Amino acid sequence: MSMQSEPDGMSAERLEVWASLATLLERLPTALDAQLQRDSGLTHFEHGVLYALDSAPERTLRLSTLAGYASSTLSRLSRAITRLEAKGWVHRIIDPADGRFTLAVLTNEGHVKVTQSTPGHHALVDRLVFDALTASQIRQLGVISRSISEAIDTAPVWTPPSAKVDPPTL
């Protein structure tokens, strides 16, 4: 009986690429969380929630929409919103257009927080991700990331509004 050196269906080349991607998926979130926790007292998830709200019209989104943007369950998002509410950065209101929904609203203090935390976060993303790549590789990474995301879930991914490319200002 011979032993296979490769798992069924995965070539050595694919296994090497997968190992590289899996390592990235472990290391990048850890690095992003560490920087945001150290500099701003936020998790990467919380920063993403604040940033999405800050980018939204009237700094307000339905919790269900925000959960979709964050690829999160409503339960996980609700726990994060509770923490952000306790710090005075977000509050919840019933959607006046449809009382079945709850809205998350970024407060002025939350706007200040995301404005202060975004430059350091973006600098780290630039250093860890974009500085390591050529312009062509950056475009390819965008295409590849979208393709993998759509293979996992066909729900639309959050896309920053084109009018708000730079970090928010006070």
From TrEMBL:
Stored SMART domains: HTH_MARR
Origin: domain of life: Bacteria
InterPro entries according to UniProt: HTH_MarR-typ, MarR/SlyA-like, WH-like_DNA-bd_sf, WH_DNA-bd_sf
Any one GO biological process: response to stress
Alphabetized SUPFAM superfamilies for the sequence: Winged helix' DNA-binding domain (SSF46785)
Record-given protein name: MarR family transcriptional regulator
GO MF annotation, one: DNA-binding transcription factor activity
Span of domain HTH marR-type: 18-150
Species whose genome carries this gene: Cryobacterium tepidiphilum
Lineage, highest ranks first: Bacteria, Bacillati, Actinomycetota, Actinomycetes, Micrococcales
